[in-house]
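Example 3.2
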Amino acid sequence: MAETPAARPNPAPDARAASPRGAGRDRPALALLIAALAVGLLRFWRLGEWSLWIDEAYTYADAWFGARGDGVWNPLGYELVRVTAEWFGGRPDEFALRFGPAVAGWLCLPAAFLAFRSLVGDRRAALVALLLAVSPWHVYWSQNARFYTFAMLTSLVGSGAALRGLFAGRTLTTLLGLAVMAAAAAFHVTAAALVPAFALALPFAGRFGARSTPEVARASRFVLVALAVGALAASPWLWTALQQHGEEKGTLDPLRGPAHLLLTSGFFYTPLVGAGALIGALWAWRTRNLPGLFAAGVALIGMGGLLLVSTRMLMTAQYTFCLLPWVLLVAVAPLEALGKCNAGRALFWAGGGALAATLFASTLLYFTTRRGERPRWREAFEFVDAERESGDLVLSMGAPLAEFYLGAAEPDPRRPREVKALADWFPDGPRRWNRHDRRAWIVTRPQWLPSFRPQDVASIEAWLANDCRLVESFPVLMEGKDLEVRVYVFE
């Protein structure tokens, strides 16, 4: 008996999507991809203009003087930063330290297109690449001497292979892609959250009504078995990494961590992208769209796993960074359906254009009034260096940064020698400093004061107000974050 249309299973991404058509045959997709690659070059603009922030100083310290701290978990990231920085010769500056992550950030754009085109076709994949190109959050981490763009690039390369293998029913290709996705954890352990999310995404989509072919279902079952074996093998390493993070940033409040993770993620993903992803997920559910439900499954399961971990330790949005391309993919999920009819093409471009324009406007603010969304530590220390005299003491909340900017030819930010740390563990507070009959320069970031012991906060504030004089302030105009740096003098 012939199968009725109602009984026929919804296929995986159709033949035209599963066998990429080539951007040259889809002129709108080609235009979007070219625009993404061109705008993506913004990652190299003003790359060395922004001051380092505290974690970038630790990157320099651990890459040049040996990993001490969380660097033990991702030595490959430190090595890549060091190797690319050494291409420029001499002592590395901000540009040299950030060059490798910026290259990886730019490569994420074609990697996203190649990863997703087999799932959703060229046009939506190119739109995801464009949205990634104009995302201020992606620009920020691309201009950062950290390892998140390395992790995302590796994850996208693996995702592309895994998607092609899964929806073609090729188990070996799928498993190789998953292995590459898992390798992204070598740059940051949280990238590993994408592996179980990918493995469980097809059952998730099936649970909400999407259907796949028997070949795809069989490949998915092999993936689940491989996930169980891999999780068992990697569990000692993952447990030890999480244990160390918990010792540093543990919390006894099971709601504090998830609330912080959700709030910071909402801020950096942007509310418009979040709303778009919610609409896309609802559309995929109502239409039983397999690609849309699969992408929503990756995003939701990945975020859910990180939220679960955050009940025991504080986590922030940067730990969800590798989920960003998948969230963007969900946000553009309904647009292709609109674009298939003449009346809906305008809505396709209007929807994609609204997302891109909003993100791009925020990126322009990043490069102008927000000053790279970094505290202006370098300017503060340059001011102190110009004003101080021989024998003056320098106290700083950002002692590792002060050592980088004021130290010798080869400063070690983890072992400051030119400055004294004004930190929450500094003993006795201002009472100790007042014993010194010498002028002192104090560089503070007010947002950090709440992390001090309550008695020390009151003591420091009283000392700065009564015995010191504010001589310069370096604010940054950015909503939602206080990045101001202040310079006081004690005479």
